[in-house]
Amino acid sequence: MIYTVTLNPSIDYIVEVEDFRLGDLNRMKRDLKLPGGKGINVSRVLNQLGIQNKAIGFLGGFTGRYIEEWLHEESISSDFVFVADDTRINIKLKAGHETEINGTGPAIREAEADALVQKLAMLSADDIVILSGSAPPSLGGDFYDKLISVCKQSKAEFVIDTTGTALKEALAHKPLLVKPNHHELAELFGVTINSREEIITYGRKLLEAGAKHVLVSMAGEGALFITGNEVYHANAPKGNVKNSVGAGDSMIAGFVGTLSLTGDLLEAFRAGVASGSATAFSDDLAEREHIEHLRPLIQISQL
Ligand SMILES: Nc1ncnc2c1ncn2[C@@H]1O[C@H](COP(=O)(O)OP(=O)(O)OP(=O)(O)O)[C@@H](O)[C@H]1O
Ligand SMILES: O=P(O)(O)OC[C@@]1(O)O[C@H](CO)[C@@H](O)[C@@H]1O
């Protein structure tokens, strides 16, 4: 079974404004409320692909109930810890460019945090746990570390998609996959990256530090897949880009879901890119038919 863990879910409030003027009254052209948070996005795309999974993490208040109901309506299995404080609302402002304003997240009490750790007590060696997104500050800096220890004890594989110290420290525990985008990769090493060669150099460092496989996504430029001594590039198909929010999460869903079904790394890479692009070309996350339509358009070449 695949579990997604979202420590800091959100309602993504997507707001489109024709001609945004700072400091003025702006009226929305269109708005949309979607359940968000990286692990929840992964679960929704896995569900589109027909891959059984369970979403866990923390939800709270009216915003948390909104997300739980949405997942229920999509028949996504979930088992969240309900916390006293409200789940955050993240603003995604589309006004020519996409600007994101993400909340810090609710206060999580010690008993609530312990309850989440308990939910992973039933893991087995056949499971894959996808740990995605930021952690609310009240959890402390080492919460991902705690969850990784639980995965390791049960010999479950884990994937981690977060930033900074939590990601760096996770590498030594041999995650099945890490998927920074090329900006996050540069930030992780405190460098600027100017070429594909440099992306490969720093991507390889993630393998050396312990990751089993590395995907570096590059938005419209596709992605690189670095595994063992091999490096592959996949193109991103061309299309009308509507929304990049969740493209990276969709890529993780496509990759991990397909790998769990087929064990074929390159098919997993192809499905990952198709899923990411199908989301980029949609208002909400990717739907199955769209992913299947794009899949044959993804060309993979070994570098
Ligand atoms: N403009 C685009 N055109 C085509 N495909 C895209 C585009 N943007 C994203 N994708 C697809 O989605 C994948 C992941 O995108 P990206 O590199 O933006 O990830 P990300 O930065 O983690 O995304 P996010 O944080 O917004 O969820 C890309 O490798 C590509 O397959
Ligand atoms: O603040 P975090 O946890 O880093 O990211 C949260 C978030 O921006 O990531 C998802 C897209 O990847 C959105 O659904 C959500 O709003």
TrEMBL record:
GO terms for molecular function: 1-phosphofructokinase activity; ATP binding; tagatose-6-phosphate kinase activity. The keyword Glycoprotein does not apply. Residues 10-280 form the Carbohydrate kinase PfkB domain. PROSITE patterns: PFKB_KINASES_1 (PS00583), PFKB_KINASES_2 (PS00584). It catalyses: D-tagatofuranose 6-phosphate + ATP = D-tagatofuranose 1,6-bisphosphate + ADP + H(+); beta-D-fructose 1-phosphate + ATP = beta-D-fructose 1,6-bisphosphate + ADP + H(+). InterPro entries: 1-PFruKinase (IPR022463), Carboh/pur_kinase_PfkB_CS (IPR002173), PfkB_dom (IPR011611), Ribokinase-like (IPR029056), Tagatose/fructose_Pkinase (IPR017583). It is an enzyme of class 2 (transferase). Pathway: Carbohydrate metabolism; D-tagatose 6-phosphate degradation; D-glyceraldehyde 3-phosphate and glycerone phosphate from D-tagatose 6-phosphate: step 1/2. GO terms for cellular component: cytosol. It holds the Pfam family PfkB. One of its GO terms (biological process) is D-tagatose 6-phosphate catabolic process. Its EC number is 2.7.1.144. Keywords: ATP-binding, Kinase, Lactose metabolism, Nucleotide-binding, Transferase. Catalyzes the ATP-dependent phosphorylation of fructose-l-phosphate to fructose-l,6-bisphosphate. Belongs to the carbohydrate kinase pfkB family. Belongs to the carbohydrate kinase PfkB family. LacC subfamily. This is Tagatose-6-phosphate kinase. It comes from Paenibacillus anaericanus.
